[in-house]
């Protein structure tokens, strides 16, 4: 088993990513976005495949969260709303634009996790149904996912590049 340049680059960038925690970027959401990049082929197509279903996942999760709050936190309403939004998610997977279940379900879960755990810069004044904080959470955590996609891209760019000297040596 040989450690290669890509292994080192991924490890170093993962470590550097942790610094995002200093400004309350949810590092776990960043790692999820980075994983999307690797899982979806480690090429720029990963952005096209993951961002539309990511947006959809966040919007549907926000609808479920708002409905739950509007109901006075009724578990029955939450169950029914999740059923409804997940059916929409499942149907959308049958389209080309939203076909990436990895991104849609991860983002759906990310908003529930990040919003309820408070992994975003919160407003002190809570609005009706806390919709302003929910929008901030959605944008903040989605931003972390997209930064993660860029980190995945950067890992491949830095880890797979071969210097002229290395190319010359391998050719001889």
From TrEMBL:
Keywords: Membrane, Transmembrane, Transmembrane helix. The keyword DNA-binding does not apply. It comes from Absicoccus intestinalis. It comes from the Bacteria. InterPro entries: DUF1097 (IPR009476). This is DUF1097 domain-containing protein. PROSITE patterns: PROKAR_LIPOPROTEIN. It holds the Pfam family DUF1097. The chain crosses the membrane at residues 12-38, 58-91, 98-117, 137-160.
């Amino acid at each position: 088993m040989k450690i290669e340049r890509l292994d080192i680059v991924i490890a170093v960038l993962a470590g550097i990513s942790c610094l995002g925690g200093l400004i309350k970027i949810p590092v776990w959401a960043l790692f999820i976005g980075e994983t999307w990049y690797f899982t979806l082929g480690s090429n720029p197509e990963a952005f096209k495949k993951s961002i539309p279903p990511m947006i959809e996942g966040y919007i549907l999760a926000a609808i479920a969260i708002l409905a739950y709050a509007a109901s006075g936190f009724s578990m029955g309403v939450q169950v029914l709303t999740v059923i409804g939004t997940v059916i929409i998610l499942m149907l959308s997977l049958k389209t080309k634009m939203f076909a990436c279940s990895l991104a849609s379900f991860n983002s759906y879960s990310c908003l529930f996790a990040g919003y309820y755990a408070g992994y975003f810069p919160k407003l002190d004044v809570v609005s009706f149904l806390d919709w302003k904080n929910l929008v901030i959470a959605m944008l903040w955590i989605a931003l972390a996912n997209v930064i993660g996609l860029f980190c995945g891209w950067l890992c491949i760019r830095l880890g797979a590049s071969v210097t002229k000297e290395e190319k010359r040596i391998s050719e001889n």
